[in-house]
TrEMBL record:
Belongs to the peptidase M3 family. Binds 1 zinc ion. GO terms for biological process: peptide metabolic process; proteolysis. It is an enzyme of class 3 (hydrolase). It is found in: Mitochondrion. Its cofactor is Zn(2+). Pfam families: Peptidase_M3. This is Mitochondrial intermediate peptidase.
């Protein structure tokens, strides 16, 4: 799948051209289908768009086989990718968000069919030979086109196009096994989220009642029998677990929740073993020592040694501040009056919140009162207008276009350029929906002709729920931070103006993809930004500057511990996919050893956190990218944004020097163009971020 679908996929042209999205004139209210695609009026429409995508792609394969000019080969390859990606992306969004099971099932079937077809495309020697011819052709003058040709050739070879028939078949089998492992891993999590029942009900704070389910049991008291005792069931899915661990004072409730959430689904231990083994075998067939070495070859880091040196450098900077752990232990001992009491992993979130609240006199319920979901969407509008001179305009949804009544649609509009892209917002929690927050591509941008541009369409999906005792959705500030992170991804997609969808938006070097999203997190913390939209849900008062100052201070508390945790995650990822001497490797032992090496927290016997860490599937060997992004974003903020974060000058720099280029330019060059020399540095033959700004920001010694 790598050659024609790179990193983050996208949607349609030719018979799939969703004209509904392309111009203001198309905003009519005729009945349509999902995402404005008229074929998707019914679930069976997914069969039709797969059929049409395969038919059109076969026509283009036939055209390429006649070996037209180099530029025509690249254009046709990009149209194949564009056509297929739209099916992949629409099916992926539907599978994760649609409440109708029939739509979900048909989207899954479509995904499986189109992936089978992708195997045919990605092992097609005619296409590979054409790409090789185009790359060598001196008439290919566009730098972006040359980059597409080189990337396609490398990705074809990474997929084993050059192997003998026997090895190629084995790689194909392994890729099918990997896809099945990823699907099984996620299915196991969905089927077995785990739960704990808590009695009595009074042990669960009222502010969590909207996240738990009432249960009861028979009990007896004295001479009275069959008394129904009320309790709550905690389903141990990520957002609920996070809230319970932060807000529940009872140690035993937190302990039960932590252990259960880190010990299901057990079946994923075997699934993960198979996934690691399959990826390792592919890397060896391709001539690499490990999957890490194989996966990093196209990234800025380029090799495991580069990533290792970066993690070591960052870890050394963090270690002197590890006294945070001791201060947390002392706080717990003072609160309990037990001076020999140690810290447990389920203490971390609760004690960190308690200590932040105490140190800065923070009431987190007061903080959330200034961040209703509707006001946060106003914050998006403030950002695009101040930074880019644009507007986010609400657009009525046509009948059949939406998948749920809560979905909103907006256009990113520039007065002189018109609509630059469209965004669906699906932000409210509901059963059966993708459990986290994510940016989904629906269609990537690309140049169709000298006068016409296929504008991007994306969806932001989150899971925010309103309290049982409120009429609107109010966000914890950590949720605001997450929302702005995802909006950074959205802007990367919407502002991209590449000639080829192959490089549209977030289709960049893997270890730069998270930089825009991390950069826009800073906007969620700056008072100059927050005062423009953060208003009390009841009084309308602007958030007090003193409160924001306290929030900023609390953010830096335990920053070193949080960074240690991220380094631990990255190290687990690198180790599990690293050089294998044992097969299968004992993943639980690896996790336990690395937790001890990189954090102050102990491993709890019987738990296996790695069975719910889905980044091992989709960010396999690439989790370090989050840390790269934190460093890059910190430097960009310090050098480009900090003095005047909302100025048009700042926004113009971000847009024209960075976001609009997607993956069409060298990533290190883009970063240096935006933030100046020194944001990246060469080490061991690869590129790593300079960590100085991040260390300065977090008061770490470099």
């Amino acid at each position: 799948m790598t050659a024609l679908i790179r990193r983050a996929p996208s949607i349609l042209r030719s018979k799939f051209n969703i004209r509904y999205f392309l111009s203001p004139a198309a905003r009519h209210m005729e009945e349509t289908g999902l995402y404005g695609c008229h074929h998707l009026k019914t679930p069976k429409g997914f069969q039709r768009i797969v059929d049409d995508a395969i038919e059109r792609s076969n026509e283009l394969v036939g055209y390429i086989s006649r070996m037209p000019s180099a530029s025509e080969i690249i254009n046709a390859m990009d149209e194949i990718s564009n056509t297929v990606c739209q099916v992949v992306d629409s099916a992926e969004l539907c599978r994760n968000t649609h409440p109708d099971r029939e739509f979900v099932d048909e989207a899954l079937k479509a995904s499986m069919r189109i992936n089978e077809y992708l195997h045919y495309l990605n092992t097609n020697l005619t296409l590979y030979d054409a790409v090789v011819k185009a790359e060598k052709d001196k008439t290919l003058t566009s730098e972006e086109a040359k980059r597409v040709a080189r990337d396609l050739r490398v990705d074809f070879e990474k997929g084993g196009i050059h192997l003998c028939a026997e090895k190629k078949d084995r790689v194909s089998q392994l890729n099918v096994e990997i896809a099945k492992c990823c699907a099984q891993y996620n299915e196991n999590i969905a089927k077995e989220p785990g739960y704990v029942d808590v009695y009595p009900a009074s042990l669960i704070p009222k502010n969590l009642h909207n996240l738990v389910k009432p249960v009861n049991r028979s009990t007896s008291r004295g001479s009275r029998f069959n008394i129904r005792e009320k309790g709550f069931r905690i389903v141990t899915e990520p957002s609920t677990v996070s809230a319970v661990l932060q807000w529940t004072p009872d140690d035993e409730v937190r302990k039960m929740t932590y252990i259960k959430s880190n010990s299901v689904p057990r079946a994923n231990l075997g699934v993960l073993d198979k996934l690691i083994a399959a990826r390792h075998e592919i890397s060896q067939i391709m001539g690499y020592k490990s999957y890490v070495e194989y996966a990093l070859q196209s990234n800025m880091a380029s090799s495991p040694d580069v990533v290792s040196s970066f993690l070591v450098e960052l870890s050394k900077a963090v270690q002197p501040k590890a006294v945070e752990f001791e201060s947390m232990r002392d706080f717990k001992r003072r609160k309990t009056s037990q001076h020999d009491l140690g810290l447990e992993p389920w203490d971390e979130a609760f004690l960190a919140r308690s200590m932040k609240s105490s140190a800065y006199n923070l009431d987190f319920s007061v903080v959330s009162s200034y961040f209703s979901l509707s006001q946060c969407i106003e914050g998006f509008k403030v950002l695009v207008e101040s930074l880019f001179g644009m507007k986010l305009i609400n657009i009525p949804l046509a009948p059949g276009e939406s998948w749920h009544p809560n979905v909103l649609k907006m256009a990113l509009h520039q007065p002189n350029e018109g609509d630059l892209g469209y965004i669906y917002l699906d932000l409210n929690s509901r059963p059966g929906k993708y459990p986290g927050c994510a940016h989904f591509a629906i269609r990537g941008g690309r140049r169709i002709s000298k006068t016409e541009y296929q504008i991007p369409v994306i969806a932001l999906v989150c899971n925010f729920s309103k309290s049982k005792y409120s009429t609107n959705v109010r966000l914890n500030h950590s949720d605001v931070d997450t929302l702005f992170h995802e909006f950074g991804h959205a802007l990367h997609s919407l502002l991209s103006r590449t000639d080829y969808q192959h490089f549209s938006g977030t289709r960049v070097a893997f270890d730069m993809a998270e930089t825009p999203s991390n950069l826009f997190e800073y906007y969620a913390w700056d008072y100059r930004v927050l005062k423009k939209f953060a208003r009390h849900y009841s009084t309308g008062d602007i958030i007090p500057e003193k409160l924001v100052t306290s929030m900023q201070g609390s953010k830096k508390m335990f920053a070193a511990m949080e960074l240690q945790q991220q380094i631990f995650y990255a190290s687990v990822d690198q180790t599990l996919y690293g050089d294998q001497t044992l097969s299968p490797i004992d993943t639980t032992s690896v996790v336990a050893d690395l937790r001890k090496q990189y954090t102050n927290w102990k491993h709890v016997e019987g738990t296996h956190w790695q069975t719910r860490f889905s980044h091992l599937l989709y960010y396999g060997a690439g989790y370090y990218s989050y840390l790269y992004a934190k460093c890059f974003a910190s430097t960009i903020w310090e050098r480009v944004c900090k003095d005047d974060p909302l100025s048009l000058e700042t926004g113009t720099a971000i847009r024209t020097k960075f976001l609009q280029h997607g993956g069409a330019k060298d990533p290190a060059q883009l970063l240096n163009d935006l933030a100046g020399d020194g944001i990246t540095k060469y080490q061991n033959g690869g590129i790593i971020p300079d960590v100085t700004s991040l260390c300065r920001e977090l008061n770490l010694r470099k």
